[in-house]
Amino acid sequence: MSLEGKIAVVTGAASGIGRASAIRLAQDGADVAIMDINETDLNETARLIEAEGKKCVPIAFDLLDRAALTAAFEKTKGTLGFIEILHNNAGGSLRKENRSFLKADAGQWDDFIALNLTAAADCTRAVVNDMKEKRTGRIINTSSERAFVGGAGFTDYSAAKAGLIGFTKSLALELAPHQITVNAVCPGITRTPILDRMPKEHIEASEKSVPLGRMAEPEEIAHAVSYFASPLAGYTTGEHLLVTGGRTLH
Protein backbone atom coordinates (compact mmCIF):
# COMPACT_ATOMS: atom_id res chain seq x y z
CA MET A 1 0.00 0.00 0.00
CA SER A 2 2.06 2.91 -1.29
CA LEU A 3 2.38 6.04 0.81
CA GLU A 4 5.26 7.44 -1.23
CA GLY A 5 5.46 11.20 -0.88
CA LYS A 6 3.24 11.25 2.22
CA ILE A 7 4.18 12.66 5.62
CA ALA A 8 2.95 10.90 8.76
CA VAL A 9 3.06 11.73 12.47
CA VAL A 10 2.87 8.96 15.07
CA THR A 11 2.57 9.80 18.76
CA GLY A 12 3.63 7.39 21.48
CA ALA A 13 6.18 5.99 19.04
CA ALA A 14 9.00 5.06 21.40
CA SER A 15 7.86 1.44 21.69
CA GLY A 16 5.02 -1.02 21.25
CA ILE A 17 2.19 -0.25 18.83
CA GLY A 18 3.48 3.26 18.12
CA ARG A 19 6.91 2.03 17.10
CA ALA A 20 5.48 -0.79 14.99
CA SER A 21 3.04 1.58 13.27
CA ALA A 22 5.70 4.20 12.55
CA ILE A 23 7.98 1.56 11.01
CA ARG A 24 5.10 0.11 8.98
CA LEU A 25 4.15 3.52 7.59
CA ALA A 26 7.79 4.01 6.60
CA GLN A 27 7.81 0.61 4.94
CA ASP A 28 4.71 1.71 3.04
CA GLY A 29 6.68 4.71 1.77
CA ALA A 30 5.94 7.60 4.15
CA ASP A 31 8.42 9.89 5.84
CA VAL A 32 7.58 9.96 9.54
CA ALA A 33 7.77 12.32 12.48
CA ILE A 34 7.65 10.42 15.76
CA MET A 35 6.76 11.85 19.17
CA ASP A 36 7.11 10.49 22.69
CA ILE A 37 8.34 11.53 26.11
CA ASN A 38 10.94 8.70 26.13
CA GLU A 39 13.84 10.17 24.15
CA THR A 40 16.16 7.15 24.27
CA ASP A 41 13.64 4.66 22.90
CA LEU A 42 12.29 7.25 20.47
CA ASN A 43 15.74 7.63 18.93
CA GLU A 44 15.89 3.85 18.50
CA THR A 45 12.59 3.97 16.62
CA ALA A 46 14.06 6.70 14.42
CA ARG A 47 17.07 4.53 13.67
CA LEU A 48 14.81 1.67 12.59
CA ILE A 49 12.78 3.97 10.33
CA GLU A 50 15.90 5.40 8.72
CA ALA A 51 17.07 1.83 8.11
CA GLU A 52 13.99 1.53 5.87
CA GLY A 53 15.39 4.37 3.78
CA LYS A 54 12.87 7.00 4.89
CA LYS A 55 13.24 10.35 6.61
CA CYS A 56 12.42 10.50 10.29
CA VAL A 57 12.11 13.41 12.72
CA PRO A 58 12.10 12.27 16.37
CA ILE A 59 10.75 14.85 18.82
CA ALA A 60 10.84 14.03 22.52
CA PHE A 61 8.45 16.00 24.73
CA ASP A 62 5.53 15.66 27.10
CA LEU A 63 2.38 15.46 25.00
CA LEU A 64 0.41 17.10 27.82
CA ASP A 65 2.52 20.27 27.43
CA ARG A 66 0.46 22.18 24.86
CA ALA A 67 3.17 24.70 24.05
CA ALA A 68 5.66 21.90 23.39
CA LEU A 69 3.04 20.06 21.30
CA THR A 70 2.47 23.10 19.10
CA ALA A 71 6.21 23.55 18.64
CA ALA A 72 6.65 19.86 17.74
CA PHE A 73 4.07 20.01 14.97
CA GLU A 74 5.48 23.26 13.63
CA LYS A 75 8.93 21.68 13.54
CA THR A 76 7.52 18.69 11.65
CA LYS A 77 5.84 20.89 9.06
CA GLY A 78 8.97 22.97 8.63
CA THR A 79 11.21 19.93 8.23
CA LEU A 80 9.05 17.43 6.33
CA GLY A 81 6.11 19.41 4.96
CA PHE A 82 2.35 18.89 4.92
CA ILE A 83 1.19 16.28 7.44
CA GLU A 84 -1.32 14.08 5.64
CA ILE A 85 -1.44 11.18 8.14
CA LEU A 86 -1.84 11.49 11.90
CA HIS A 87 -1.79 8.45 14.13
CA ASN A 88 -2.95 9.46 17.60
CA ASN A 89 -1.44 6.51 19.40
CA ALA A 90 -0.09 7.97 22.64
CA GLY A 91 -1.95 6.74 25.68
CA GLY A 92 -1.93 3.95 28.20
CA SER A 93 -1.45 4.14 31.93
CA LEU A 94 0.41 6.60 34.12
CA ARG A 95 0.05 4.36 37.18
CA LYS A 96 1.91 1.32 38.44
CA GLU A 97 -1.18 -0.77 39.22
CA ASN A 98 -4.88 -0.94 38.42
CA ARG A 99 -7.18 0.61 40.98
CA SER A 100 -10.90 0.36 41.41
CA PHE A 101 -12.96 3.48 40.82
CA LEU A 102 -13.58 3.85 44.56
CA LYS A 103 -9.85 3.79 45.36
CA ALA A 104 -8.60 5.99 42.53
CA ASP A 105 -8.43 9.71 43.20
CA ALA A 106 -9.79 12.45 40.96
CA GLY A 107 -6.31 13.47 39.85
CA GLN A 108 -5.70 10.01 38.41
CA TRP A 109 -8.96 10.30 36.46
CA ASP A 110 -7.88 13.66 35.04
CA ASP A 111 -4.50 12.26 34.02
CA PHE A 112 -6.09 9.37 32.13
CA ILE A 113 -8.51 11.59 30.23
CA ALA A 114 -5.72 14.02 29.38
CA LEU A 115 -3.32 11.39 28.06
CA ASN A 116 -5.77 9.06 26.32
CA LEU A 117 -8.32 11.52 24.94
CA THR A 118 -7.47 15.21 25.22
CA ALA A 119 -3.99 14.79 23.76
CA ALA A 120 -5.49 13.21 20.63
CA ALA A 121 -7.78 16.22 20.22
CA ASP A 122 -4.84 18.61 20.67
CA CYS A 123 -2.75 16.78 18.05
CA THR A 124 -5.69 16.76 15.66
CA ARG A 125 -6.13 20.53 16.01
CA ALA A 126 -2.49 20.91 15.01
CA VAL A 127 -3.04 19.31 11.60
CA VAL A 128 -6.70 19.55 10.66
CA ASN A 129 -6.76 23.05 9.15
CA ASP A 130 -3.96 22.16 6.74
CA MET A 131 -5.80 18.95 5.82
CA LYS A 132 -8.98 20.93 5.13
CA GLU A 133 -7.07 23.34 2.91
CA LYS A 134 -5.51 20.46 0.95
CA ARG A 135 -8.78 18.46 0.99
CA THR A 136 -7.05 15.29 2.03
CA GLY A 137 -6.01 13.60 5.24
CA ARG A 138 -6.05 10.47 7.37
CA ILE A 139 -6.57 10.60 11.14
CA ILE A 140 -6.21 7.27 12.95
CA ASN A 141 -6.86 6.97 16.68
CA THR A 142 -5.74 4.12 18.91
CA SER A 143 -8.66 3.20 21.15
CA SER A 144 -9.00 -0.19 22.88
CA GLU A 145 -11.22 -3.19 23.35
CA ARG A 146 -11.82 -1.71 26.81
CA ALA A 147 -13.97 0.95 25.15
CA PHE A 148 -16.51 -1.80 24.42
CA VAL A 149 -16.15 -4.44 27.14
CA GLY A 150 -14.89 -2.37 30.08
CA GLY A 151 -13.02 -4.04 32.91
CA ALA A 152 -12.84 -3.90 36.70
CA GLY A 153 -10.01 -1.59 37.66
CA PHE A 154 -10.11 0.10 34.24
CA THR A 155 -12.91 2.63 34.68
CA ASP A 156 -10.74 5.65 33.87
CA TYR A 157 -8.96 3.97 30.96
CA SER A 158 -12.18 2.51 29.52
CA ALA A 159 -13.95 5.86 29.77
CA ALA A 160 -11.12 7.65 27.97
CA LYS A 161 -10.94 5.06 25.20
CA ALA A 162 -14.73 5.06 24.77
CA GLY A 163 -14.54 8.83 24.52
CA LEU A 164 -12.00 8.39 21.73
CA ILE A 165 -14.56 6.33 19.80
CA GLY A 166 -17.13 9.12 20.15
CA PHE A 167 -14.49 11.64 19.07
CA THR A 168 -13.65 9.51 16.04
CA LYS A 169 -17.24 9.16 14.85
CA SER A 170 -18.23 12.78 15.40
CA LEU A 171 -15.07 14.19 13.85
CA ALA A 172 -15.50 11.88 10.86
CA LEU A 173 -18.88 13.48 10.14
CA GLU A 174 -17.45 16.98 10.45
CA LEU A 175 -14.48 16.31 8.19
CA ALA A 176 -16.08 14.08 5.55
CA PRO A 177 -17.04 17.07 3.34
CA HIS A 178 -13.33 17.94 3.25
CA GLN A 179 -12.31 14.41 2.12
CA ILE A 180 -10.57 13.70 5.43
CA THR A 181 -11.16 10.29 7.00
CA VAL A 182 -11.13 9.56 10.73
CA ASN A 183 -11.01 5.99 12.02
CA ALA A 184 -9.97 4.06 15.12
CA VAL A 185 -8.00 0.89 15.75
CA CYS A 186 -9.03 -0.97 18.91
CA PRO A 187 -6.39 -3.47 20.04
CA GLY A 188 -6.90 -6.24 22.54
CA ILE A 189 -4.08 -7.50 24.75
CA THR A 190 -0.85 -6.78 22.88
CA ARG A 191 2.79 -7.57 23.64
CA THR A 192 3.99 -4.09 24.66
CA PRO A 193 6.20 -2.79 27.49
CA ILE A 194 3.14 -1.88 29.56
CA LEU A 195 2.75 -5.60 30.28
CA ASP A 196 5.89 -5.39 32.40
CA ARG A 197 3.79 -3.61 35.04
CA MET A 198 1.12 -6.29 35.17
CA PRO A 199 1.14 -9.40 37.36
CA LYS A 200 2.10 -12.56 35.48
CA GLU A 201 -1.16 -14.28 36.46
CA HIS A 202 -3.19 -11.42 34.99
CA ILE A 203 -1.36 -11.70 31.67
CA GLU A 204 -1.81 -15.47 31.57
CA ALA A 205 -5.53 -15.18 32.33
CA SER A 206 -5.92 -12.54 29.61
CA GLU A 207 -4.22 -14.74 27.03
CA LYS A 208 -6.45 -17.68 27.91
CA SER A 209 -9.50 -15.50 27.28
CA VAL A 210 -8.45 -14.89 23.66
CA PRO A 211 -10.07 -17.37 21.24
CA LEU A 212 -6.92 -17.38 19.11
CA GLY A 213 -5.02 -18.39 22.25
CA ARG A 214 -2.36 -15.69 22.29
CA MET A 215 -1.82 -11.96 22.60
CA ALA A 216 -1.23 -9.76 19.55
CA GLU A 217 2.16 -8.61 18.39
CA PRO A 218 2.45 -4.82 17.85
CA GLU A 219 3.06 -5.41 14.14
CA GLU A 220 -0.38 -7.02 13.85
CA ILE A 221 -2.00 -3.83 15.11
CA ALA A 222 0.17 -1.82 12.73
CA HIS A 223 -1.40 -3.68 9.79
CA ALA A 224 -4.74 -2.07 10.67
CA VAL A 225 -3.13 1.37 10.98
CA SER A 226 -1.52 0.88 7.59
CA TYR A 227 -4.89 0.07 6.03
CA PHE A 228 -6.61 3.16 7.43
CA ALA A 229 -3.69 5.33 6.24
CA SER A 230 -3.74 3.88 2.74
CA PRO A 231 -5.67 4.79 -0.43
CA LEU A 232 -7.58 1.52 0.05
CA ALA A 233 -9.44 3.13 2.97
CA GLY A 234 -10.47 6.24 1.06
CA TYR A 235 -14.18 5.37 1.42
CA THR A 236 -13.95 4.27 5.06
CA THR A 237 -14.54 6.85 7.76
CA GLY A 238 -15.99 6.98 11.27
CA GLU A 239 -15.26 3.28 11.75
CA HIS A 240 -13.45 1.30 14.42
CA LEU A 241 -11.63 -1.98 13.88
CA LEU A 242 -11.39 -4.38 16.82
CA VAL A 243 -8.12 -6.31 16.60
CA THR A 244 -8.58 -8.61 19.58
CA GLY A 245 -8.10 -12.21 18.42
CA GLY A 246 -11.82 -12.73 18.89
CA ARG A 247 -11.90 -11.71 22.55
CA THR A 248 -14.71 -9.21 22.03
CA LEU A 249 -16.95 -11.89 20.51
CA HIS A 250 -17.89 -13.22 23.95
Task: Give a quick precis of the structure.
With 250 residues, the protein is α/β, with parallel strands linked by helices. Helices cover 45% and strands 15% of the residues.
Which terms would index this structure?
alpha/beta, 45% helix, 250 residues, seven-stranded parallel beta sheet, 8 helices, Rossmann fold
Task: Characterise this structure.
There is one protein chain. The protein is α/β, with parallel strands linked by helices and 250 residues long. It has one domain (7-249): Rossmann fold (3-Layer(aba) Sandwich). The chain contains eight helices and seven strands. The protein has helices spanning 16-27, 39-50, 66-79, 106-134, 146-149, 155-175, 200-208, 218-229, and strands at residues 7-11, 31-36, 56-60, 85-88, 137-142, 180-187, 240-243. It has a seven-stranded parallel sheet, sandwiched between helices. α1 (16-27) links the parallel β1 and β2. The two termini are 33 Å apart. The model has no long low-confidence stretch (mean pLDDT 92).
